[in-house]
Design brief:
about 80 residues, mainly alpha, Arc Repressor Mutant, subunit A
């Protein structure tokens, strides 16, 4: 099966937002390839390294919040 990695990345970014802490950080517990693509797009800090979390860029945090609402928010 072919997968739409753009849609996967949107879902991962939205779900990262659920783990938001310390203002702009999120636990890095998702697929490494998706995390790498989000980093390459400038939405999160480099997921490689010892830290257990990544930092959202300003654009990444704004996009994550919007995606969380659009993908998983309830109407009304």
């Amino acid at each position: 099966m072919k997968l739409d990695t753009d849609r996967i990345d949107d879902a991962v970014l939205a779900l990262l937002y659920l783990g938001l802490h310390e203002g702009d950080r999120a636990w890095k517990s998702f697929d490494w390839e998706a995390m790498g693509r989000l980093h390459a797009r400038g939405l999160i800090s480099d997921p490689l390294g010892r830290a257990k979390s990544v930092a959202f860029t300003a654009d990444g945090q704004d996009r994550a919040a919007a995606l969380l609402e659009s993908l998983f928010g309830k109407a009304g």
